[in-house]
Amino acid sequence: MKPVLSDGVLAGDRRALARAITLIESTRPDHRGDAEALLADLLPQSGNSIRVGISGVPGVGKSTFIESFGLHLIAQGHRVAVLAVDPSSQRTGGSILGDKTRMEQLARNPAAYIRPSPAGGTLGGVARRTREAMLICEAAGFDVVLVETVGVGQSETAVADMVDLFLLLLLPGGGDELQGIKKGIVELADMIVVNKADGDLAPAARRAAAEYHAALGFLRPASARWKPPVLQCSALHQTGIDEIWARIVAFREIMTDSGELNDKRALQAKTWLWSEISDTLLRRLREHPAVAERLESLENQVMQAQISPASAARQLLSAFLGETVRAED
Ligand SMILES: Nc1nc2c(ncn2[C@@H]2O[C@H](COP(=O)(O)OP(=O)(O)OP(=O)(O)O)[C@@H](O)[C@H]2O)c(=O)[nH]1
Ligand SMILES: [Mg+2]
C-alpha cells in the first residue's frame, strides 16, 4: 500500500508533516519499513532548501536569533523549518519546545514549523532522525531549514555534516576557551556571527569580531571560493539580520554555480550511508547472542591488559560472523 501520508506532506498539510516526522522518529522496529517507504516517496521532492546549521554555547542567543531570523525570512516570503540536534536533551519534548517562549511569534506563524530534537538515543540516532526530518520538511515545501544544536562538542560535527552552511554564534568578548567553545568548532564554521552587538556590549562585540576575523586569517578555508565572514548582530533588537541572510544567499549562489554545493551534499549522503551501515552493524554485533555472552568478560580482560584489544576484537568478530577472523584480516 502506498502511504497516503506522503500526499499529505507534499500538499503541505501540517498534521501530515507532524505525523510523518513522528513515524521516522519512532524507534519501533515495525515502523521502520513504513518510514523507509515514506522517505522513498518523498526523497525526489526534497533538497529544495538552503540548509543552515546554527550552533553556539548555552546563552549565546540561539533561540532569540532563530526567532528574529525566522521572522525576517518569512517576511520575505520564505517558509522556515526549525529542527534540533540535542542528544543530551532529557526534557520532555526536547529542547526547542521548552523554548517556545523565546520563539513565540515564530512558533505561531503558519509559515514556520518548529520541531524539537528527537528525545533520547545516541548522537548517531538523533542525527539520522533529524536528517530524515529535514528531507520531509523540504518535501513539504519549506525552503529554509535551520538546524540548531547546543555547543557541546560532537553534535556540531553531526550538524555540520548535514547542512549547506554552518553558522556559529559567538558572544561579545573572550576567546574560544573563555566562551567554552570546543576545539575545532570554529574551523567548522562557514560564517561567524557575534551576537548581542547592542547597548553596552557593542564595543566588546566589535572587538570580538575583529579578533575572530584575524584568527580566521590563519585558517585555510574549506573552499577556495568562500572565506568565512565574521558578522555582528543583535538578535534581541533585530539588527544585522538582513546582512546575515544576504551573505547566506551569496554563499548559496557561489557554491551552487561552482558545483561545490552539489558535491558537498553528495559527500554528506555518502557519509550518511556509511554511518547507517556502521550503526546497524554495531547494533547487530552487540545484540548477537554469541557476542553478548563474551562481551563483558573480554572487555574486562582488555581493561586489565590480560589480552590485547586487537585479539579481543577478533574473538568477538569471529563469534559474530561464525567464522575465524585472523590477525592478517
Ligand atoms: N543584549 C542581548 N541579549 C540577547 C540577545 N540575544 C539573546 N539575548 C539574551 O540572552 C539570553 C539567552 O538567549 P537564548 O536565546 O535563550 O540563548 P540560547 O543560545 O538559545 O540558550 P540555550 O537554549 O540555553 O542554549 C536571553 O536572556 C536573551 O534575552 C541580543 O542580541 N542582545
Ligand atoms: Mg535556546
- Overall body shape: globular
SSE order:
HHHEHEHHEHEHEHHEHEHHHH
| CATH class category of the largest domain | Alpha Beta
Termini separation comes to: 44 Å
CATH architecture of the largest domain: 3-Layer(aba) Sandwich
C-alpha Rg, in Å? 22 Å
Mean pLDDT: 90
Structural write-up:
This protein has a 7-stranded parallel sheet, sandwiched between helices. It has 15 helices and 7 strands. The N and C termini lie far apart (44 Å). The protein folds into 2 domains: 1-44, Single alpha-helices involved in coiled-coils or other helix-helix interfaces, CATH 1.20.5.170; 46-258, Rossmann fold. Helix 2 runs antiparallel to helix 7 (123-139) and helix 14 packs antiparallel against helix 15. It has helices spanning 5-10, 14-25, 29-42, 62-75, 94-97, 104-108, 123-139, 154-160, 176-179, 185-188, 202-216, 241-257, 260-287, 289-303, 309-321, and strands at residues 50-56, 80-85, 112-114, 144-150, 165-170, 191-194, 230-232. The radius of gyration is 22 Å and the shape is globular. By secondary structure, the protein is of the alpha/beta class.
